[in-house]
Amino acid sequence: MQEVAVRNIEIEALPGQKLQIMRGDTVRVHVAFEYRGPTMSVTPYASIGQIRLGVFDEIASNVGPAISLSQSQDWRAYTGYVDIDSSPVSPGTNYDLMAKLKEYPGETEVRLTDVIDVLGAAEFRNFEITEYVAR
Amino acid sequence: MEKELGAVAVGAYTEIVAIYGPSEALAGETVSLRVDIKNLHTGAIYIASLARVDGLDLTPTPEYATVDPGATQSFSYSFTMPQTDVIFEAWSYYWTGTEWYQDDSRRVSIRLKTLAAEFRGFEVTEYVAR
């Protein structure tokens, strides 16, 4: 029997679209922004969680590789990413996503609501014998 | 006696009539200045200029020139702005026939320009399960 090898599969979602993941998957969050100012380095940060009463309750989070910003008086575009291990997130639906620059949370924090569903491992319940019949 | 910044000091045969350039610059930025020197003598003379900024001697373009009486010659300078405010001091010289005689000087200050960090349009562009 022929085996099919599949690797590097990515399931992508754009802002507002729902992403279904298995618990334990890594979610890579891509961010983009514009910057002008002195030379510095910033750290992207992202989290999967739930917004409760306006507060983002973080469940799984991480920082991404530092982004080097060049001195400029004009706006320049930058991108970055953060990989989040979803293992701490219980199976469930409608998780929220938050991203920001760690050093400038007030200027950069963004939230996306109800964008991630987490599926658990294969689970069964209520297995039962419903009847037995002589034939 | 120390002259005040920007004060005009008239020399015997030459006068630095103006220094044109930015009053502030970013660290690492190339700062360009122009020093205008007037011939006060009754005949044409050789005029030269030198300058110093942050302990560094600067040579202009051109290094010297023949200047007619009453005429003004421009000398161009450039340097890299350091991480501090600086004073640009320029001198004028004329050729006596045997040596360059230092005649006039003028200073200007150039402030270090600082930029505030600004962000806009921060967004999540996509999220990917891997």
What report would you give on this structure?
- The complex is a heterodimer of chains A (135) and B (130).
- Chain A is mostly beta strands.
- Chain A has a single domain, classed as Immunoglobulin-like (Sandwich).
- Chain A is built from 1 helix and 10 strands, in the order E-E-E-E-E-E-E-E-E-H-E.
- Chain A has one helix at residues 105-108; strands spanning 11-13, 19-22, 26-37, 40-42, 44-52, 55-63, 67-69, 72-85, 92-101, 110-119.
- In chain A, the strands form 3 sheets. Chain A has a 5-stranded mixed sheet.
- In chain A, a hairpin with a 2-residue loop joins strand 5 and strand 6.
- Chain A is elongated and about 85 Å long.
- In chain A, 26% of the residues are buried.
- With 130 residues, chain B is an all-beta fold.
- Chain B has a single domain, classed as Immunoglobulin-like, CATH 2.60.40.10.
- Chain B is built from no helices and 10 strands.
- Chain B has strands at 14-20, 24-26, 30-39, 45-53, 56-58, 64-67, 72-80, 86-95, 100-113, 118-129.
- In chain B, strands 2, 4, 5, 6, 8 and 9 form a 6-stranded mixed sheet that branches.
- Chain B is rod-shaped and about 80 Å long.
- Mean pLDDT of chain B is 90; it is low at 1-8.
- The A-B interface holds A 10-15, 19-22, 25-38, 40, 46, 69, 71, 73, 75, 79, 83, 97, 99-101, 104, 107-110, 112, 115-116 and B 26-28, 114-130.
- Strand 3 of chain A pairs antiparallel with strand 10 (118-129) of chain B, so a sheet runs across the interface.
